[in-house]
Amino acid sequence: MRGVVADGAGGPEVLSLGEMPDPVAGPGEVVLEVAATAVNRADLLQRQGFYPPPPGASDVIGLECSGTVAEVGEGVEGWSVGDEACALLAGGGYAERVAVPAGQLMPVPAGLDLVTAAALPEVACTVWSNVFMVAGLRPDEHLLVHGGAGGIGTMAIQVAHALGATVFATAGSAEKLELCRELGADVAISYRDEDFVEVVKERTDGHGADVVLDNMGAKYLARNVDVLALEGRLVVIGMQGGTKAELDLSVLLRKRAAVIATSLRARPVESKAAICAAVVEHVWPLVADGRVRPIVHRTLPLAEAASAHALLESGDASGKVLLTTGA
Ligand SMILES: NC(=O)c1ccc[n+]([C@@H]2O[C@H](COP(=O)([O-])OP(=O)(O)OC[C@H]3O[C@@H](n4cnc5c(N)ncnc54)[C@H](OP(=O)(O)O)[C@@H]3O)[C@@H](O)[C@H]2O)c1
């Protein structure tokens, strides 16, 4: 089959289309004929040599895809050859075929085309697992989403808004702030021109954010803890602003607050399967009734993976960048 190969670690130009062996469905796995995959920030890091795949995972880049079941491994129930699905992957999505544990397959939400479905697994699973399963956001609470116009942010705003929470979102340009508002953010905050701590406290009469979903890591740690409400939960999922910072435990202690950091990719198969099942139960109905929609910035052929990486790296994209195989 064809797939994206990397000529060493480096810039987007190391990526090109090459030949590679077809995957085989092991016990409990299916092979999907990939229709589309999507570019994630983690893919950029993997390409640069900083984020190796977990043990046993394909070394081909790609954490999600949509496609048609082409082979069903021993012991798999509920999926047949020809079924359409989307999937959360530990790797291998940038190829014509990929093997995936059956628990990480999800049906295509009603009303969505197969290619667009590739925009959903990573963001839906990340948002549902962190904001709802880990941080337990409730409808009467305030959520602060950093990077509201990104892939994760566009999903977090929509799901939290649909479930009744008040949503604050940060973004870097007027156009992206507008997108956050369109998707349901009650307050959109420019991370360039405004202090998000001040804005959130002012708009909540000093209460603060009950949950913060953070992509910045070290750079925002002190301010994220500052903006937390009593018994607030800060969930760090990205380190775009570095990995090391000082944490004033006395502030956490006074607020009875929590700082949690998680990674989806390294979770065991059973844990990913539980997240996928929860996403199908809670998020798919919101997609089917139109309250949550995938935000796709651009769709390119798989052969243009290098351009897709350059686009995400430029910071110009809002939402997801997809790659199609033509299948
Ligand atoms: N831990 C996990 O399991 C997990 C899973 C998935 C993703 N992630 C991480 O989550 C983060 C978001 O992923 P993504 O797919 O949404 O990436 P993305 O689409 O590339 O979005 C990146 C976001 O970062 C925002 N940003 C840049 N500088 C910022 C700043 N100073 N303050 C606030 N936001 C800033 C951008 O905002 P503008 O576009 O408005 O400038 C953009 O929304 C990444 O760090 C990714 O690695 C983690």
Automatic annotation (TrEMBL):
Gene3D superfamilies: Medium-chain alcohol dehydrogenases, catalytic domain, NAD(P)-binding Rossmann-like Domain. Residues 10-323 form the Enoyl reductase (ER) domain. It holds the Pfam family ADH_N. Keywords: NADP, Oxidoreductase. SMART domains: PKS_ER (SM00829). InterPro entries: ADH-like_C, ADH-like_N, ER, GroES-like_sf, NAD(P)-bd_dom_sf, Quinone_OxRdtase_PIG3. This is NAD(P)H-quinone oxidoreductase. It comes from Nocardioides aestuarii.
